[in-house]
């Protein structure tokens, strides 16, 4: 659902990427492997733009021919789910803070992709919004 396809471009012996689903996401690297590692950070950084602008985060489209896939960390996926649920319900961070009985900064960190949150806190926030976090393991 949030394994985003990226398009890899080569220029002067270096690589850079674009993401059709998250046009704000770009990354670069000296090798494709480095680029794919950096693409995770590039997408997560771009997701902060969506939160800052109050926009829902789009799901990933199917991977097309010649595209590479970027698998986001579980915590980033959980934060996307929390943010999109908040958007669906018309809630702001202040509303989440009141609902969880925490300060605004604490609630804000739950949808801050630069901050490492405890999964239990994200689960608690999702539960308060009527959602449950489910984790699955798939073959690589």
From TrEMBL:
Coiled-coil annotated residue ranges, if any: none
Domain annotation HicB-like antitoxin of toxin-antitoxin system: ranges: 4-67
Gene3D superfamilies from the UniProt entry: 3.30.160.250
InterPro entries attached to this UniProt entry: HicB-like (IPR031807), TTHA1013/TTHA0281-like (IPR035069)
Protein name from the UniProt record: Type II toxin-antitoxin system HicB family antitoxin
